[in-house]
Automatic annotation (TrEMBL):
Domain GST C-terminal: 87-209
GO biological-process terms attached to the record: glutathione metabolic process
Signal sequence range: none
Pfam families documented for this protein: GST_C_3 (PF14497), GST_N (PF02798)
Organism whose genome encodes this protein: Chytriomyces confervae
Name this protein carries in UniProt: Glutathione transferase
All copies of domain GST N-terminal, residue ranges: 4-83
Molecular function GO labels: glutathione transferase activity
Coiled coil start-end: none
Taxonomy, superkingdom: Eukaryota
């Protein structure tokens, strides 16, 4: 299979780019993993980026694509491993996983709107005691009901994996004071994490990053 020349531009962070990087890795599609500083982005890229934000994917040095989940769906369609399933029901299951994980990430990120530290702490305490356990339980039950037990990986699974390895553990739970392995209590989430983690291309990617 031949592919265009790809360059993925983001910060030196996982957050919105990592599921895309993993989708490339699982498919064996070569890409330039460009990691820019906030300063370089503001000075050189923000004006020309389609929506003034990263990640962006540059195709063959000319077409510039934006919006992380749109890019992920694209990469999930073009490779030999159909990470974005062709079956519409399987596709919407993957889409729902992505949206739910994004809702969790937004809830974590919303703590930043509070400049008053006492209010921020109260928000995070509620997150830890109520919001996160509820959201994670919903995710666990959804996976139990809808996600295939096979080795097949979807872009939705990549988001669940990213929730555990990226935002939630390194940033989110650190904020809320939760232990880093808080997802471990959720059997079905954990199974998805293990499925992705044990994929040879993902294991190889993690060993290098
Ligand atoms: N909906 C967009 C959101 C992108 C976004 O919020 N990007 C942030 C980094 S995670 C950004 O570029 N911030 C710098 C800025 O807005 O100037 C996506 O999913 O790609």
């Amino acid at each position: 299979m031949t592919f265009p020349k790809f360059k993925l531009t983001y910060w030196d962070a996982k957050i919105r780019a990592e599921p895309i990087r993993l989708a490339f890795a699982i498919n064996g599609i070569p890409f330039e993993d460009e990691r820019v500083s906030r300063e370089h982005f503001a000075a050189e890229l923000k004006q020309s980026a389609p929506f003034g934000q990263v990640p962006i994917l540059t195709v063959d040095d000319k077409l510039v694509l934006a919006q992380s989940t749109a890019i992920l769906r694209y990469v999930g369609k073009i490779g030999p491993v159909k990470l974005y399933p062709e079956d519409p029901i399987k596709a919407i299951i993957a889409d729902q996983l992505i949206s739910h994980v994004q809702d969790i990430e937004s809830a974590l990120g919303a703590a930043f709107v509070f400049t008053d530290l006492q209010q921020r702490d109260a928000y995070r305490a509620n997150l830890t005691a109520n919001v996160l356990p509820t959201r994670l339980k919903q995710l666990d039950e959804f996976i139990a009901q809808h996600v295939s037990q096979s080795d097949e990986i979807t872009i939705g699974d990549l988001y669940v994996y990213q929730l555990n390895t990226g935002f939630l553990t390194t940033t989110g739970f650190a904020f809320t004071g939760q232990p880093k392995n808080s997802v471990a209590g959720f059997e079905h989430i954990q199974k998805v994490v293990e499925k992705v983690k044990s994929h040879p291309a993902v294991a190889e990617w993690e060993a290098r990053h």
